[in-house]
């Protein structure tokens, strides 16, 4: 799409990060987008990016910022580490760019692999929205749940019933969990109900192993460095997951769902297919296959053997693109119902019912 599109993608991501309470990450995005040149291999690769560099496409700025954050966390470049939170960066942009530019040139080999694939955030805050959706389903059907997560990354959101929640005053999950989620909540609260998960399984093309140190390193790097509370929450969720790792299959989501989710109804349980900020990364033919299979399974669902599709995905909302929590049920309305608008990391929700 050209150098102009790359620089625009970094500028837009800078604005997004700053508005979301990550001003230093936004500053890094802005400086890289404005000042990176082709004098080094990283600059040439970034500025000549062959795909869609925006946050709605390849998320190139987040790939690059993840690599820089990892480099800063590693301590191998003391000058870079010194300007990253919790340290205080110089106010002068020239001074900050001098450090960033030198690090990019000196550590090109370490940064290059971070450009190879999309960010792996596995943001635990999104579990708050998913739990709200499960409360709606538990109130409606009164059944336990089988969960099927698509694009699960490390599977942390598959473990959502092991976290504690305060959702607009409604308590859910485990009150003794080391992971407690209390997003800013506007509108009515979700219904109060008992959420029981009897089985869970997940799929990802490139799943992350929660028991390996590389996973903690990767996921930590993709947390915006300003947001120390998110990092603490991630570490608490990983500590919890290590004790009972989720089952994640390495496969294409559409193929896996057709194999794992039988068309035949399963009485006494509500089967829930769920995903968060993942569907947009599936190929169009895969998306179509998932829709077709869900419709086929849903056609045979009953009130005693229901099917649900619970999603937290970005979509156009007026003049902006933001995540929407939606729920489709079989039996139920023919279209997915909008449950809430949410912040991408689950920091706040606006309940719409």
Plain-language structure description:
It contains twelve helices and twelve strands. The chain is of the alpha/beta class. A hairpin with a 5-residue loop joins strand 11 and strand 12 (about 350).
Nutshell version of this structure?
The chain is α/β, with parallel strands linked by helices and 353 residues long. The protein has helices at 3-19, 23-35, 41-47, 60-74, 78-83, 93-106, 108-111, 127-141, 213-222, 228-243, 253-260, 284-298, and strands at 145-150, 164-167, 170-173, 180-181, 184-186, 197-204, 248-250, 270-276, 307-317, 320-330, 337-342, 348-351.
Order of strands across the main sheet: 5-12-11-10-9-8-1-6-7
Terminal residue distance: 41 Å
What's the gyration radius in Å?
A: 21 Å
Strand tally is: 12
Which descriptor suits the 3D outline? Answer: globular
Helix fraction, binned, reads 25-40%
Number of helices: 12
User: Low-confidence runs (pLDDT<50, min 5 residues)?
Assistant: none
| Average predicted local confidence, pLDDT | 96
Topology order in helix (H) and strand (E) letters: HHHHHHHHEEEEEEHHEHEHEEEE
Work out the strand percent: 15-25%
Largest sheet: 9 strands, mixed
Would you tell me the structural class of the helices and strands?
alpha/beta
């Amino acid at each position: 799409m050209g150098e102009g599109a790359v620089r625009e993608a970094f500028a837009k991501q800078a604005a997004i990060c700053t508005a979301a309470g990550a001003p230093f990450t936004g500053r890094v995005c802005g400086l890289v987008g404005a000042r990176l040149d082709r004098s080094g291999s990283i600059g040439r690769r970034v500025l000549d990016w062959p795909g869609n560099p925006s946050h709605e496409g390849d998320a190139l700025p987040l790939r690059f910022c993840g690599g820089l954050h990892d480099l800063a966390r590693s301590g191998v470049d003391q000058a870079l580490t010194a300007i990253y939170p919790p340290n205080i960066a110089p106010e002068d942009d020239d001074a900050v760019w001098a450090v960033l530019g030198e690090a990019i040139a000196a550590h090109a080999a370490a940064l290059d692999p971070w450009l190879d694939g999309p960010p792996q955030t596995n943001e635990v805050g999104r579990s708050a929205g998913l739990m709200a959706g499960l409360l709606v389903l538990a109130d409606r059907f009164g059944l336990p749940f089988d969960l099927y997560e698509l694009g699960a990354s490390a599977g942390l959101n598959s473990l959502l019933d092991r976290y504690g929640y305060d959702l607009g005053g409604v308590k859910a999950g485990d009150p003794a969990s080391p992971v407690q989620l209390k997003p800013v909540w506007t509108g009515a609260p979700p219904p109060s109900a008992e959420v029981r998960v009897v089985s869970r399984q997940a799929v990802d093309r490139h799943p992350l192993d929660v028991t390996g140190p590389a996973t903690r390193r990767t996921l930590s790097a993709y947390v915006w460095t300003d947001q120390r509370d998110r990092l603490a929450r991630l570490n608490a969720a990983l500590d919890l997951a290590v004790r009972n790792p989720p089952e994640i299959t390495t496969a294409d989501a559409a193929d896996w769902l057709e194999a794992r989710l039988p068309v035949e109804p399963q009485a006494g349980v509500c089967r829930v297919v769920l995903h968060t900020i993942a569907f947009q990364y599936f190929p169009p033919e895969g998306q179509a296959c998932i829709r077709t299979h869900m419709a086929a399974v849903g056609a045979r669902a009953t009130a005693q053997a229901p099917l649900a599709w619970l999603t937290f995905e970005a979509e156009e909302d007026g003049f902006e693109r933001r995540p929407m929590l939606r729920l489709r049920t079989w039996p139920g309305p023919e279209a997915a119902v909008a449950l809430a608008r949410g912040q991408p990391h689950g920091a706040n929700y606006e309940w719409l019912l």
